[in-house]
Amino acid sequence: MKRIVVLGAGxxxxxxxxxxxxxxxxxxxxxxxxxxxxxRALLDQNGVKWEDGKxxxxxxxxxxxxxxxxxxxxxxxLIQKLQAQGTPIISEIEFAARYTHAKMICITxxxxxxxxxxxxxxxxRQAGLNVGLAGNIGNSLALQVAHxxxxxxxxxxxxxxxDNMYDFRADVAIxxxxxxxxxxxxxxxxxxxxxxxxRITRNQTTDDAFIYWAEDPVIDREMKKLQxxxxxxxxxxxxxNPLPVGEDExxxxxxxxxxxSMAATIAANVVGxxxxxxxxxxxxxxxxxxxxxxxxxxxxxxxxxxxKATNVNSCWYALESMTTPTVLILGGKDKGNDYxxxxxxxxxxxxxxxFMGLHNEKLHEHFDGFGLQIIDTNNLxxxxxxxxxxxxxxxxxxxxxCCASFDLxxxxxxxxxxFMNAVRKL
Length: 426
Hints:
Layout: E1 3-7, H1 11-22, E2 26-31, H2 37-45, E3 49-52, H3 57-60, E4 65-68, H4 77-84, E5 89-90, H5 92-97, E6 103-108, H6 113-126, E7 131-135, H7 141-147, E8 152-156, H8 159-163, E9 172-175, H9 190-198, E10 209-213, H10 217-225, E11 231-235, H11 255-271, H12 275-284, E12 293-298, E13 301-305, H13 312-320, E14 326-330, H14 343-349, E15 350-356, H15 361-367, E16 373-377, H16 380-390, E17 396-399, H17 412-424
Parallel strand pairs: 1-2, 1-4, 2-3, 4-5, 6-8, 6-9, 7-8, 9-10, 10-11, 13-17, 14-15, 14-17, 15-16
Antiparallel strand pairs: 12-13
Helix pairs in contact: 1-7, 6-11, 6-12
């Protein structure tokens, strides 16, 4: 019996383990952290052996194949040992795709993935298709393949997930944009990150669609170098407009969301969704949590939760959409950020910057010379109180951190939830 070892027992790892068990493999799950109760119960209910708080090498290095959580870097010592002995290491998406004939609509990019993925899923649901939502959002693809039977999957893919995908083929691949992100995982080499993003086109043929933002300078540069097998669908403001509604009718506002809506419209057209369904969906879609999410107006000041802005380019889009003087809360776990991308917008839109992180030295080094009010904090309470005192009637307080959340929070969702709860108590 072939032995499958799953490293990491979060959503993707637990789903992969359940699917592997169902397919008759000898399955073992190992997580060096603590496996949370819902996933422990899921593994126990399905008779999957597991350990947490450690990696027992003799139970892992004998694997025929390893399914790795996207959060584990390829430089981890255990991964290095597995690679040295030639053990295949794949992602949960790669593993799950072996056991379904569903059409795969896959979305990646530095920014806009969740919004675009959710919008496409919404359109397909509105059209009455049997569709699952997977990847970075929704239930794991593997768990859905094990317990459900969808005709389509709409999958949000990070560069980490793409790193360990080899035979997987997207029927529709969407590349929204590429800006520096996660450089700490890619030896601080931007090209390594770019190459990871373009893996979404791997194995595509002329029967498949590759939808991409033609005006992104990085994508444009790479497209001139590559010979791709897919049928190409460029979009952008210099391309024919695919939208069946006017930009002012879109439920999602902002220049970046016009582009996201274009990509989703083309994907829906490729799948064969009727124009009137696409039109109505674009007008009624409600957006996603933690992305430019209105929280409350307190004493004439609007508070916006953009906790999902975990990189500088995402913060740029948030600032670009601001129409009032802004107090910007930023900071967290720096991933090799270059803050110069938002310099012009910070000077134009912001009168106060609130730093919220355990290590704000890089933020001070970059922004202290801007002549703006700087408030230094290392916790959420002090950041909100500082922003509250600095904001004037008619202002917007924007949480758009540019950074990962893991210095102070469990996740960007946790950061956003805590922020919204605290604001509502003001």
